[in-house]
Every structure is written in C-alpha cells, then in structure tokens.
Amino acid sequence: MSKVIELTKDNLNEVIDNNPIVIVDFWAEWCGPCKSFAPTFEAAAEENDGVVFAKVNTEEQQELGSMFQIRSIPTLMVFKDQIVVFSQAGALPASGLADLIKNATELDMDMVRKQIAEKEKESVAKAV
Does the CA dihedral 121-126-127-128 come out positive or negative? Predict the structure, then answer.
C-alpha cells in the first residue's frame, strides 16, 4: 500500500490546507526520468511520517500543471504551511530528496513570512 496520494484539482486545497508539509511530484506516464524517480519518491514517503507525499499526473491534471507553471517534468514542489517553499525541475537522488525533506522540516516559517511581506512592500513601493 503506497503512502503517496494522487493530487487532483478536486483534492488539492484540502491536502495543502490540512497538512503542514506536502511534497508534490509532477510527472507523466511517458516521462522516463519520472519513472526512474518514482521508486525514490515512494521510498521517501515510507520513511517520513508527518510529511504528505503527493503526485500530479500532468497529462490527467493539466489544469494543475498550468496553475503551478510546470514547464518540465519531473518537477518537485514543497508546500509548508500552505506556502511553496521549493520548486525545481529534475529528479533528485535519494540523498538529495532526504536533504530537501530535512530542510523543509526545519525551515523557520516566521522568517519566510517576514521575507514574503518585505518583498510585497517592495513591489508596492515600486508600483507607486
């Protein structure tokens, strides 16, 4: 039984809103690197309780691919407290994925929110 869930436009908000950390793998059936990365992603899901692992089939969920501006696959995206804190195309080795999970878990979200607020202030100042 896989611990990885299929993410769709119907369950996206519920999954992101109700879990502190969600790691999303955007993939497609025809993508060789995606298929190579799948066992690594599945193994990480088995090893990391408290982190939700989800997959988006970009062929079946084109709306989500478009919403998140997915340009190449595989692409990994990490949500922490409903904020995208990581987004990168390309498969990671198991050690890289483990580091990403560790960093996401330890990330200080108060600092992230502060940085976002500062950038928003700068954007408003430039627009005026």
Answer: positive
Q: What is the pTM of this model?
A: 0.90
Check pLDDT > 50 for residue 11.
yes
Give the number of other Cβ atoms within 10 Å of residue 56's Cβ.
26
- pLDDT tens-place string over residues 92-125: 999 999 999 999 999 998 988 899 888 888 888 7
| Cα distances (angstroms) measured from residue 106 to each of 20, 34, 44, 100, 112 | 12, 27, 17, 10, 12
Active-site amino acid positions: 31, 34
What CATH number is given to the structural domain containing 72?
3.40.30.10
- Give the number of domains in the chain: 1
48 Rama sector, left if φ>0, alpha if ψ -120 to 50, beta otherwise: beta
